[in-house]
Write a structure and sequence with these properties.
The complex is a heterodimer of chains A (111) and B (115).
Chain A lengths: L8 E5 L4 E6 L7 E8 L6 E6 L4 E2 L4 E4 L5 E6 L8 E9 L12 E6 L1
Parallel strand pairs in A: 1-9
Antiparallel strand pairs in A: 2-7, 3-4, 3-8, 5-6, 6-7, 8-9
Chain B lengths: L3 E4 L2 E4 L5 E7 L4 E9 L6 E7 L5 E2 L8 E7 L2 E6 L8 E9 L5 E3 L3 E5 L1
Parallel strand pairs in B: 2-11
Antiparallel strand pairs in B: 1-3, 3-8, 4-5, 4-9, 5-6, 7-8, 9-10, 9-11
Classes of the chains: A mainly beta (111), B mainly beta (115).
C-alpha cells in the first residue's frame, strides 16, 4: 500500500472549515483513499473514502487531486467534538481489508 | 449503523495472569476480524488478522503464543493475552469486516493495565 504523509497537528476555530491535507504521491491506480478519525480513548471511526472523484457525506468532503497524489478532508463547520486524530490511509480495497494506520493529524478545534 | 462490541472496556490484572478480550459483531456477520494495539500517543499497530474457522495471521514481531486469537464464529473473535506483563499494558482495538457490505467497523477498545 502507498505511504501517506500528514502534518502532525493542526488547529481550527470552532465553526470554521477544517481542511486536513494528505500526501500519497506513490498511490497506485487501484488504491483508494480512506479517512478515519479517533477521538481520545475510543476506536477509530470511518469518515469517508474515494478513488478519484470528490466525495461528500454527512460528515465531511473528500477532495482528491486530479493526479491523485494528494487529497484534502474537509470538515465544513468544525465543532469541539471534532477534536481527534485524523488518519489518511491508502489501500487497495479488495486486498486484505485491513487498515494500517500512520501517525495521523491531531486536529484541535478551539472555541 | 453496524456495531462492534468489545468487552471489557477496561481491565486491570496482575503480572503473570491471562486476560481475554472479546470482540463481537452485533448485527452483522464477520468472516474477518483484525486486532490492533495502541500505546499512549502512538498510532494503532495491526497485530493479527483473524479469519473465522482458521488460524490467525500474525504481523511480524507479534508473538502468536502470547497473543492467542480465536475466531470460532461469524460474530465473535477473542484475543487472550497470556502471562501478561507490564509492557503488555496497552489499548487493544478490534475491527470486523461485514461479509455482506465488506465495510469495516471498529470496536471501542479495551484498556489493559498489567500491574
Amino acid at each position: 500500500d502507498a505511504k501517506t504523509t500528514q502534518p502532525p497537528s493542526m488547529d481550527c476555530a470552532e465553526g470554521r472549515a477544517a481542511n486536513l491535507p494528505c500526501n500519497h504521491s506513490t498511490i497506485s491506480g487501484n488504491e483508494y483513499v480512506y479517512w478515519y478519525r479517533q477521538i481520545h480513548s475510543q476506536g477509530p471511526q470511518y469518515i469517508i473514502h474515494g478513488l478519484k472523484n470528490n466525495e461528500t457525506n454527512e460528515m465531511a468532503s473528500l477532495i482528491i487531486t486530479e493526479d491523485r497524489k494528494s487529497s484534502t478532508l474537509i470538515l465544513p463547520h468544525a465543532t469541539l467534538r471534532d477534536t481527534a486524530v485524523y488518519y489518511c490511509i491508502v489501500r487497495v480495497a479488495a486486498v486484505g481489508h485491513d487498515m494500517r494506520f500512520g501517525a495521523g493529524t491531531r486536529l484541535t478545534v478551539k472555541p | 449503523g453496524a456495531v462492534v462490541s468489545q468487552h471489557p472496556s477496561r481491565v486491570i490484572c496482575k503480572s503473570g495472569t491471562s486476560v481475554k478480550i472479546e470482540c463481537r459483531s452485533l448485527d452483522f456477520q464477520a468472516t474477518t476480524m483484525f486486532w490492533y494495539r495502541q500505546f499512549p500517543k502512538q498510532s494503532l499497530m495491526l497485530m493479527a488478522t483473524s479469519n473465522e474457522g482458521s488460524k490467525a495471521t500474525y504481523e511480524q514481531g507479534v508473538e502468536k503464543d502470547k497473543f492467542l486469537i480465536n475466531h470460532a464464529s461469524l460474530t465473535l473473535s477473542t484475543l487472550t493475552v497470556t502471562s501478561a506483563h507490564p509492557e503488555d499494558s496497552s489499548f487493544y482495538i478490534c475491527s470486523a469486516r461485514d461479509r455482506t457490505s465488506e465495510k469495516l467497523f471498529f470496536g471501542s477498545g479495551t484498556q489493559l493495565s498489567v500491574l
